[in-house]
Amino acid sequence: MTEAAPALAGDWAGRHLGTRTVSWTERDAILYALAVGARADQLDLVYEKNLRVLPSFVLTLAQWAPDVLGSAGAFDVGTTLHGAQRLTVLEPLPAAGELTFSASVGAVWDKGSAAVFDVTVESRCSVATWTLFAPGRGGFGGERGPGRPEPPPAAPESTTAVPTAATAAVLYRLLGDRHAIHVDPAAAAAIGRPRPILHGLATLATVSLALAEQAGAHPADLRELSGRFAAPVFPGETVTVRRYAGGAFDVLSAAGTAIECGLARFT
């Protein structure tokens, strides 16, 4: 990025973050499926013969975009949190290949003590938006933005216990997000956690497999996925997934509601 970094968080709105072509192999897609809980008997997710790629794998390919925004000085990468994620799937990912992404900053909301950045990454296969909560970057006089969505009005249609693997975080980080809080106990302790935590995107993808099963769908037929990250999940923990009408869901962990205002839709 050649432009000077804006002094105010709100001035980042609309900034182009660049274009990048990213490649992957069948091995990468299989590693991702295993990291987020695919079973050994789900052969078309874990075996290169007739391999189908989980659509949320695209989020690992596009992770560079929020990283670019942080390294450019928009926020403190040590304190900024991944607040929410949205993914719309436009077409299936091939088992191996390359994809060109274009990234930009969308809205930047002023929450007073913090700023909230939306980073949108587009490709021919997907549109994905990271929502990033940046303490200390608010107070720039911008709009506050939308409030927290209302929870589902009715009781869940189904409730399922979903285990996460003890190795989930150390596997998932090999796909690009190597933040130390997911592997180093000292780094986790520095943010007030008793041990390394699972990536929010790993939790989101893991529960999407269970949601597909509940919906009678194949997990590779995911077309829309979103959720707000509200509490941590620890690798090896079993979470509770509650599915509501219309594809809405939430996820409960030992620490509270781990994912709220979730939505998963399949074809």
Structure description:
With 267 residues, the protein is an alpha+beta fold. The protein has two domains: 9-135, Thiol Ester Dehydrase, Chain A (Roll), CATH 3.10.129.10; 158-266, Thiol Ester Dehydrase, Chain A. Helices cover 20% and strands 33% of the residues. It is built from seven helices and ten strands. It has a ten-stranded antiparallel sheet with strand order 1-3-4-5-2-7-10-9-8-6. Strand 4 (114-122) and strand 5 (126-135) form a beta hairpin. The longest helix has 16 residues, at 200-215. 40% of the residues are buried. The mean pLDDT is 96.
Give a brief rundown of this model.
The chain is of the alpha+beta class and 267 residues long.
Which stretches are low in confidence, meaning pLDDT under 50 for 5 or more residues running? none
Report the order of strands and helices. EHHHHEEEEEHHHEEEE
Domain module count:
2
Q: Characterize the biggest β-sheet.
A: 10 strands, antiparallel
What is the overall silhouette? globular
How would you summarize the topology of this molecule?
Elements: E1 16-24, H1 26-35, H2 43-46, H3 58-61, H4 64-71, E2 81-89, E3 97-110, E4 114-122, E5 126-135, E6 158-163, H5 168-172, H6 185-190, H7 200-215, E7 222-229, E8 238-243, E9 248-253, E10 256-266
Antiparallel strand pairs: 1-3, 2-5, 2-7, 3-4, 4-5, 6-8, 7-10, 8-9, 9-10
Short key terms for the protein model shown above:
single chain, 267 residues, alpha+beta, Thiol Ester Dehydrase, Chain A, 2 domains, 10-stranded antiparallel sheet, 10 strands
